[in-house]
Specification:
Helix 4 links the parallel strand 2 and strand 3. The protein has about 475 residues and is α+β, with helices and mostly antiparallel strands. It has 14 helices and 17 strands. Belongs to the amidase family.
Length: about 475
């Protein structure tokens, strides 16, 4: 099969299938072969049902049925392995769930199938999506397609590696602290974390979770919007889901962007900052960009309390039973959460509120906030983060992704798109954040960068 087809957009693949130019089943079979030959370990499971689903898509076309009601007709889509899939193993990256096969689909998977998508398989993640690198004891290490010695990022790392390497045009993941945007930036693809609740997340180990946001990874901004249209909207299974609403921007006339490279507490490698600043100039044709003082430093305190606390809630009283089968770093992190008391949680919630208030303050004056996506490019496998950033020793595993997790805490939509490459050929991302429920406006600004420095045709050396 023509290699270029594996780097076609999801929208392009769907259009070819609808016109009868491409057989979904033939494409799916070729893609499965490609996945099985891959060096990356991006997938942990190839769905046995994928070929039958693709044949059903072909039969819709052959029968002359109306196909416009299936926006993803015959398109292979991957699903992160902490999102439940009926009849397909969902391991959560853990030996604890190594044999778990759900009886029903998550809401987002149901919506994918209703749109005609082919669930091609499940993508790798760290255990319980807890780390920023993919190295679970069950699933192993996922490697970066730009350099096999480098991390892919996490926790939706398998998803980003797959899209970057032409192992599927569209991936569904989720994002608690940057888990879509981090690997998207490290792999040179686009990743969207929508407004909190916009895409329902159910079933969920902790259904009242306001940090985990379901989102998408793709090679094009248009595909992000295509996927958003399929997945968004209220669902009774998710008590925190919200209706699909697009609120207008508050300012008439030319758009305005608040730019910050520090957000009050971030350290960044100079080469990364230089690449992002160069991409920032592309926005100048569409919006007025102003460097603004933004202080999101309370996010570090909020994250350090609320995330391990939430992990402890999810695990409940099962940790002692499970611990000997788990990643020791994940066990330690959950035990940290178990030690949190009322005063700690109160402090964390107040810090979270401060992040929300500051974000709203800035977005009350500007249409968007733009930052780097990460402080560093991809680093060596075996590390959970760099030991030094711009000559400053790191003190936390969070230090290399300070730009992403504040907006999980605040619930605002954020997208990462490629900004360029380092001298070593590693991708760098730029992040655009918007007002809540301005997801499509955020994507529209991302398209400006995409048009100025197109990346969809760029192919990594490994797959």
């Amino acid at each position: 099969m023509d290699e270029t087809l594996f780097f076609e957009s999801a929208a392009g693949i769907a259009a070819r299938i609808r016109r009868g130019e491409l057989s979904s089943s033939e494409f799916t079979l070729a893609l499965i072969d490609r996945i099985r030959e891959s060096q990356l370990n991006a997938y942990c499971t190839v769905a046995a049902s994928a070929v039958d689903a693709a044949r059903r898509a072909d039969s819709v076309v052959a029968a002359g049925e109306e196909t416009t009601k299936f926006p993803l007709l015959g398109v292979p889509v991957s699903v992160k392995d902490n999102i439940e899939t009926a009849g397909i193993r969902t391991s959560y990256g853990s030996r604890v769930f190594a044999e778990y096969v759900p009886d029903s689909d998550a809401v987002c998977v149901r919506r994918l199938k209703a749109a005609g998508a082919v669930i091609i398989g499940k993508t790798a993640l760290p255990e319980f999506a807890t780390k920023g690198v993919v190295d679970s004891p069950l699933l192993g290490i996922t490697r970066n397609p730009w350099d096999l010695t480098k991390v892919v990022g996490g926790s939706s790392g398998g998803a980003a590696a797959a899209v970057a390497a032409g192992l599927g045009p569209l991936a569904v993941g989720n994002d608690q602290a940057g888990s879509i945007r981090m690997p998207a930036a490290l792999c040179g693809v686009a990743g969207l974390k929508p407004t909190g609740g916009r895409i329902p997340f159910a079933p969920n180990l902790f259904p009242w979770d306001q940090l985990f946001h379901v989102g998408l990874i793709s090679r094009t901004v248009d595909d992000l919007e295509l996927g958003l249209g399929v997945l968004e909207g209220l669902d009774p299974d998710d008590p925190l889901s919200v209706p699909a609403v697009d609120l207008p921007l508050r300012h008439a006339g030319r758009l305005s962007v608040a730019w910050s490279s520090s957000i009050g507490f971030a350290t960044i490698e100079p080469e990364v900052l230089s690449i992002v600043r160069e991409a920032l100039t592309d926005i100048g044709s569409t919006a007025d960009v102003e460097e603004v003082g933004i202080d999101l430093s309370p996010a570090a305190l909020a994250y350090s309390i609320l995330v391990p606390f939430k992990r402890a809630i999810e695990t409940g009283n099962r940790l002692d039973e499970w611990a000997d089968r788990m990643d020791p770093e994940v066990v330690d992190y959950i035990r940290l959460g178990q030690k949190m008391g009322v005063d700690d949680v109160r402090t964390g919630l107040r810090a979270r509120s401060a992040v929300y208030v500051e974000t709203e303050r800035v977005l009350g004056e500007y249409d968007f906030i733009v930052t780097p996506t990460l402080s560093v490019p991809a680093f060596e496998i075996g590390l959970t983060g760099p030991s030094v950033i711009d000559g400053v020793p790191t003190t936390s595993f969070r230090d290399w992704f300070p730009y992403t997790y504040p907006f999980n805490l605040s619930g605002h939509p954020a997208v990462s798109v490629p900004a360029g490459f380092t001298a070593d050929g590693l991708p760098v991302g730029i992040q655009i954040v918007g007002k809540r429920f301005s997801d499509r406006a955020v994507l529209a600004l991302a398209r400006v960068i995409e048009a100025a420095r197109p990346w969809a045709s760029t192919r990594p050396p490994f797959r």
